[in-house]
Design goal:
heterodimer, A: three-stranded antiparallel beta sheet, two-stranded antiparallel ribbon, B: two-stranded antiparallel sheet, 4 helices, about 25% helix, elongated
Amino acid sequence: MAGPCYEADAPGARLHRSLDALDLIYHRPSGMTHMVSEPVPQILAALAAGPADAAKIARRLAATHDFDANGAEDAIAARLAELEAVGLVRRA
Amino acid sequence: MSNEHDQHEPAQAGEPDATRRQALMLGAVAASAVVSIRPALAQSAGSVLNCEIPVPDAGRAGQYIAADGQLVPPDTPGAFPPSPRPFKGEEVRAAMQGRSLPGTDPQRSQAYTNYIRRLQHGQSGFTCYASLQNPRR
């Protein structure tokens, strides 16, 4: 079953700073700063290739990352819902 | 893994390194991965022009305002009595740009404006004044 499809602003709309285990993301359009952990920066990077649902993002991430595929879609879907709530992604 | 070092390239500015296979922790579904920070001043963006600055603040009501903005005892020669009402952020912004505060002549407006410029953290009206200073407003 396909979940909702999401898109993100172009990478230039965000300023990223890595702080060891955490990343800071300043979202220019909203003026808000977000402290995020894995896999959020990776999901946003995967969305740079175009709108995608959780399953598609999992496939994109699998091309460049090693992770436990068991439950991956659910975990990514939960992060997408979280990112939608703070305005970093929106329904495509 | 040691034979992958030749593929390593620096990450593009601001984006994660996508050129090298990385271990990724997806975490549990219920484990929140985002904490958002909304600056207090940004939060008040809509209300900046309506926020109020008392001259002087309630704790020192009754004191006069000298031309340089310092608070002085009542009836000090050359000083101005307190403003009968607080000023709106919008009025103060206009005064910073050279207009007089409403209900005042230029000298009195200047004294009040100098007082407002001296406001410090914790004093009534400071947050309002600080918001006016934010160049994004």
